[in-house]
Amino acid sequence: MNRTSGTSSHAGHGRPRAGTRHYALFSALVLLAATSASVAAADDGPGPLGVTSVAVRTTQSARVGVLVGSDKTGDLTDNHFCTASVVHGQNHNLIVTAAHCLSGDTDLVFAPGYRDGKAPYGLWRVKRRFMPDSWSKDQDEDSDLAFGVIEPQGGKGIEDAVGANRFVTGTSTGATAVTVTGYPDSRDEPITCTNKPQAHSGTQQRIDCPEFTAGTSGSPWINGDGQVVGVLGGHDQGGLTPDTSYSVVLGTAAAELYKDAAADP
């Protein structure tokens, strides 16, 4: 299974994850984790570690949003299927997400800062997509990363509207805590969790955060310097359980893909 939602046929992946609607369990887990002596505050990121909660409205959360098919924009509540975020590019027009979120041929729009069925910063059309050849040809899980070039509005790019994080490659897995923010398909507000990633393999990294269910594919992993150092996807297209998520290790191939996408006008 993957982290796209049940409406993710836009991207060619329609299998919802099992156990995505355990709301009572979700509340209990948050309460237990927040009160457990085993949960320590993060020295290098907002603590406590490994606790998932609703993301508050900030300039940072406004840069994260949902992907929606352009023919479904009349009802965002029932039709968002993946998460993406704005990253800096020389033309101020770039989002990053998982490759399996952009693999289809359906026209897509991005709604940054989405909450409660509304797009407070507007709907922005994805006009071009950049993904590795190894994903396009073989769906190689080590290549599950993609960029979308966003069409400007009123002569301004999406980065001018909500700001952007830096996309950074070559950082050591687990060097610092990261904050993962994304949109489960069963919720109309983003959730967030901070923890330290661990190496899963030489090409994949993992993070333990509860309740990252279907719809959270593409969620950015952001360190304390506002840098995107991971994107939820990769191994098993994000993971088989809602409590452990994966990302491709961002190395040379990711850097080359970003360079191409960031230069696109």
TrEMBL record:
Q: Which GO terms describe its biological process?
A: proteolysis
Q: Which UniProt keywords apply?
A: Signal
Q: Which PROSITE patterns match?
A: TRYPSIN_HIS (PS00134)
Q: Name one GO molecular function term.
A: serine-type endopeptidase activity
Q: Does the keyword Signal apply?
A: yes
The signal peptide annotation in the UniProt record is 1-42
Transport listed as a keyword: no
Q: Tell me which InterPro entries the record gives.
A: Glutamyl_endopeptidase (IPR050966), Peptidase_S1_PA (IPR009003), Peptidase_S1_PA_chymotrypsin (IPR043504), TRYPSIN_HIS (IPR018114)
The protein's organism comes out as Streptomyces naganishii JCM 4654
Q: What is this protein called?
A: Serine protease
